[in-house]
Amino acid sequence: MAEIWKSLPSWVRNIVVPILVLIIAINVVGVVFSVISSLVWFAVKALVVVGIAAAVVVLVKKAAKG
Predict the structure, then answer these.
(1) What is the DSSP code string of the chain?
(2) Which residues have a Cβ under 8 Å from the Cβ of 8 and sit 6 or more positions away?
(3) What is the C-alpha to C-alpha distance for residues 8 and 3, in angstroms, rounded to an integer?
(4) Please, are residues 8 and 16 in contact by the beta-carbon 8 Å criterion?
(5) pLDDT (tens digit per residue) in 7-65
(6) Which of 16, 29, 52, 54 fits a 20 to 30 Å CA distance from 45?
(7) Is the Cα torsion angle 10, 13, 16, 22 positive or negative in sign?
(8) CA 41, CA 48: separation in Å to the nearest integer?
(9) Is 2's pLDDT higher than 90?
(10) d(CA 38, CA 31)
């Protein structure tokens, strides 16, 4: 690997490789952010559904008593 690195021209080592690393890092951060945000959004949706279901159960029990 060191031989390949040393055989590259200096402009590739100093310009192209850092740009590629930056692009890859941005994509990895984007994927991580996307996964986390989708999990949080799923949790919010699940909590809303559970809340609505609990409200329906309470209302049905009230209606059955009355």
Answers:
(1) -HHHHHHS-HHIIIIIHHHHHHHHHHHHHHHHHHHHHHHHHHHHHHHHHHHHHHHHHHHHHHHHH-
(2) 17
(3) 9
(4) no
(5) 989 998 899 999 999 999 999 999 999 999 999 999 999 999 999 999 999 999 999 98
(6) 29
(7) negative
(8) 11
(9) no
(10) 11
Gap between the Cα atoms of 53 and 46, Å rounded: 10
* Token reading at 31: 């994927």
**Token representation of residue 15:** 């310009």
Q: Alpha-carbon distance 21 to 19, whole Å?
A: 5
